[in-house]
Write a structure and sequence with these properties.
Blueprint: H1 8-17, E1 20-25, H2 39-55, E2 58-59, H3 82-99, E3 103-108, H4 114-130, E4 141-146, H5 153-161, H6 171-180, H7 203-209, H8 224-247
Parallel strand pairs: 1-2, 1-3, 3-4
Helix pairs in contact: 2-6, 2-8, 3-4, 5-8, 6-8
The protein binds nickel (II) ion (NI).
């Protein structure tokens, strides 16, 4: 069940059966020569929509722009500052808390969001810790899950791509978008075939170290069949994880 295609009465009825909502969160940033700029939002969104179909979970609108300052050396990338993203997450959660939601399952597609999303959760908990008498719901729980860390996904990626999977513009994430969006498959020469690796600082430094945007990957190996296998494996891990979170006692 998707929030954007629901009426408010349907959301009220949903709240009588569940206080959990899925929050897909990603990024809008370059993903190398053949990866889509929306990759990090498209992957968790596609998985969340399937999770919703399988379990009846309510799926919130995807937070499609994340913390991606280091990608700004490449055309099309958009970032929120960490402080902005914290406010976006807090305001979305608190809006939904007002309606009775208590559990927020963030399905994440971008490693660069992790520190900021975790800080946002701390801000949310700090509200009830510091002002318990003003808190509408004392039982708020936020959980962040990276789709590529769902059980079995990294193992499958290693089997499919070995070390060429890399850490940005990975074969796995490019494959998943190729499976989910076959009309948007791109091809490009990779030179060198496997991209360099190294630390991440600011946008200009990133562009110098990683001239075509990739880190450690050779996403010319990406293919829709691998994407299908990764999608199905990820979903098998995410469904029971979501169900445990939604059903666990507070
Ligand atoms: Ni990515």
């Amino acid at each position: 069940m998707e929030l954007r295609f629901s009426t408010w009465q349907e959301v009220e009825r949903y709240l009588q059966t569940s206080k959990t909502i899925v929050m897909p969160i990603g990024s809008t940033e370059q993903h190398g020569p053949n990866g889509l700029i929306g990759t990090d939002a498209l992957c968790p969104e596609a998985l969340a929509l399937e999770l919703g179909k399988e379990t009846g979970a309510l799926i919130a609108p995807t937070i499609s722009v994340g913390m991606a300052q280091h990608h700004l050396g490449f055309a099309g990338s958009i970032t929120l500052r960490p402080s902005t993203l914290i406010l976006v997450i807090c305001d979305m959660v608190n809006s939904l808390v007002r309606h009775g939601f208590e559990r927020f399952y963030f399905l994440n597609g971008h490693g660069g969001n992790t520190a900021t999303a975790t800080a946002a959760f701390s801000e949310i908990y700090a509200q009830s810790s510091l002002s318990p008498q003003e808190t509408e719901s004392p039982n708020i729980r936020c959980l962040l899950r990276n789709w590529w860390e769902a059980e079995g996904v990294m193992k499958l990626s290693r089997e499919l791509f070995g070390a060429a999977d890399g850490s940005h513009a990975t074969c796995g994430e490019v494959s998943l978008t190729q499976y989910a969006y076959p009309d948007s498959i791109k091809s490009a020469e990779m030179d060198p075939p496997i991209a360099p690796t190294g630390p991440i600082y600011d946008a200009d430094d990133y562009r110098r170290r990683f001239p075509d945007g990739r880190i450690g990957s050779n996403p010319s190996l990406a293919n829709p069949d691998a994407g299908k296998a990764l999608f199905e494996t990820a979903l098998l891990g995410i469904i029971p994880d979501y169900t445990r979170f939604a059903n666990a006692g507070s």
